[in-house]
Amino acid sequence: MAANATATALEDRWRDILTVHARTLCEIDRALHPHGLGASDFEVLDLLAAEAPRHGDQCRVQNLVGRVHLSQSALSRLIGRLEKDGLVERSVCVEDRRGVYVSLTEKGRALHARVLPLQRAALERGLGAQA
Fold first, then answer.
1. How many other β-carbons are positioned within 10 Å of the β-carbon of residue 63?
2. What is the tens place of the pLDDT at every residue in 76-122?
3. Other CB atoms closer than 10 Å to residue 75's CB: what's the count?
4. Cα angle for residues 106, 112, 30 (degrees, 5° grid)
5. CB-based contacts of 91, cutoff 8 Å, min separation 6
6. How much is the pTM?
7. Is 15 exposed, middle or buried (0-12, 13-18, 19+ CB in 10 A)?
8. Three-state secondary structure call for residue 98
9. Residue 103 phi, psi (nearest 5)
10. Left if phi > 0, otherwise alpha if psi is -120 to 50, otherwise beta: which for 44?
């Protein structure tokens, strides 16, 4: 009987986590939508701002793969959209032609700075009561 109660408690906890995640993701999407971004778009911009903080700094796409919770192909498509919108630039790694670098453009840095408070406020609304 105790094993059954433990399994039920774990399932309930898992569902609570999924509920908080979904609610917070929707909150972020709503906040960023007027600026042409979704939560995943922002996550890539935010990681790039942290990994490559100065103009001209670059980050290998491979370094982003495990951090954005997207498949490599989905991440490549997302970066392609951000590049088309002028928010990031891609370049080939000279040392390893298979590697690709990505960096924020000035437009991308400006947009990130403008929406960062909106994303953080959405996180607070979604997760603030959880802390």
1. 15
2. 999 999 999 999 999 987 777 678 899 999 999 999 999 999 999 99
3. 20
4. 140
5. 58, 100, 101, 102, 103
6. 0.85
7. exposed
8. coil
9. -145, 155
10. alpha
Torsion of CA 15, 127, 107, 41, to 10 degrees: 0
Look up residue 52 and give its two tokens: 């490559």
Cα 118 from Cα 56, distance rounded (Å): 25
**Where do we find the tokens 């406020």?**
121
Q: Which helix (H) or strand (E) holds 111?
A: helix 106-127
Distance CA(69)–CA(124), nearest Å, equals: 21
Q: How many Cβ atoms sit within 10 Å of the Cβ of residue 4? A: 8
Both structure tokens of 126: 């979604």
The amino acid at 58:
Q
Query: What is the model's pLDDT at position 131?
Result: 47
Q: Cα torsion for 91, 75, 65, 128, to the nearest 10°?
A: 120
Rounded to 10 degrees, the C-alpha dihedral 34/105/59/96 comes to 130
